[in-house]
Model the fold of this input.
Amino acid sequence: EEKNAALEKTLINVKSENSLLKTRLDAVEKKQVDLVSSTVKVDESGKVPQSFLPGSYSEFTPEDLQWQSLHMAAAAACAGTTPSNGLHSNRAIPGVAGSTCTEICAGTYFTQCTGTVALMGLRGQVRTVGGHAGLFYRYGCDWRQRSGLGELEY
Done:
């Protein structure tokens, strides 16, 4: 009879522990469901949907941001060719292969060319003092762009 009482007590303890483990398992499963439902899922191409990305990445593509960086560099380079401020001299306008700045500007509101610049940025971060980030060339207004590397040809 003592043996039966001990077994009965062990059975009660096992049932109690089993019940506690089931409760904990239910809580873990609920957390898992919540986590899965709130996790960003990749699309069919294996990429995170753009709307989940931080900052400007949710509104603009990485390519848009790359173009913006190039446009800022072009505007800065153009500023370096300009002797003064004014309506004729505060815009950077993309070139077209076979055209001159004079020809392109003549077709816009900003009709006076102040110079042509060509830019090339090197990839990656500059990590050494004295390292260079890119190249630039300044040409006159009547220099005819020869290559098809202008923005409008993309």
Remarks:
- The radius of gyration is 33 Å.
